[in-house]
Amino acid sequence: MAGARERDLERFAERLESALGDNLVAAVLYGSAARGTYVKGRSDFNVLVIVRDASAAGLRPVAGAVADWAKSGEPPPLIFSEAEWRASADVFPIEIEDMREAHRLLRGRDVFEGLETRREDLRQELEREVRGKLLRLRTEYAAAASDGRALGKLLLASASTFLALLRAALRLAGRVPPREPAPLVRAAAEVTGMDACAFDWVVGRLEGRDLPPLEPFDAEGARYVDAIERLARFVDETRA
Question: What pLDDT score does 33 carry?
């Protein structure tokens, strides 16, 4: 991560701690910046904040810090009350396991200790997410396929979402997902039966390789959609 952004993150954590005081349970960095796959100009610094009181009154002291963080170009933090966080394991198992696997504690205590997710809840959320994202991908692909530039933007914009779903699919199969995109895609292809080459262009761009732009109706786009369809079938065929 760039030194300047790391300093910005530390200042944000300091402001959270100062503004929230005893109300702050934990501030956690998660996502690509914690996983080691951060790409400058494309990735975000994702922060999870757990508080004892998440009411409007409880969060008012931190409004300025959150607003400034968002104005700097980063997404506002996810904010849970401590009770909501403990009750969320059956609703957000994909997100929780992704955070557990790649996070850095900025302030407070370890909020993953003792928090357990169930395989059946993971499969249920994964099926819902894959089906919903596939429908959206098809719609956006139909609109973008005739324009190579737009098609490339679509694939890159959707990549982080689908890589997260590939990690979830590997966990569903009892596998530990690799952190880097290329080995992650290969491992997911082995488990789901999708074409690993479907992500070649996207992974290459994420790795910073200078690849040519996509052409109208590029086969890379079609393979990408086909891979997500295969992922959906895998989840449907896998029972908890």
Answer: 87
C-beta atoms surrounding 143 within 10 Å? 12
d(CA 85, CA 201): 37
Question: What does the block give as tokens for 63?
Answer: 């409004």
pLDDT score, position 4 = 79
Residue with tokens 């295969």: 230
**Dihedral angle over CA of 39, 41, 44, 45, nearest 10:** 80
Per-residue model confidence (pLDDT) at position 43: 73
Q: Where are the alpha helices (DSSP H) in the chain?
A: 3-20, 32-35, 56-59, 63-71, 82-87, 93-101, 119-144, 148-172, 181-192, 200-206, 219-237
Beta partners for residue 27, in sequence order = 49, 107
With b for 16 or more beta-carbon neighbours within 10 A and e for fewer, the 49-65 pattern comes to bbbeebeeeebeebeeb
3-class SS at 165? helix
Mention every residue, 6+ apart, whose C-beta is less than 8 A from residue 144.
150, 151, 153, 154, 221
Pairing mode, strands 78-81 and 46-51: parallel
Q: What are phi and psi of 54, to 5 degrees?
A: -100, 20
Report the residue count for the chain: 240
Give ∠ CA 51-54-58 in degrees, rounded to 5: 95
Specify the pTM: 0.89
The residue with tokens 């790795």 is: 207
Which parts of the chain sit beneath pLDDT 50?
Answer: 1
For residue 223, which of 189, 182, 190 has the smallest C-alpha distance? 189
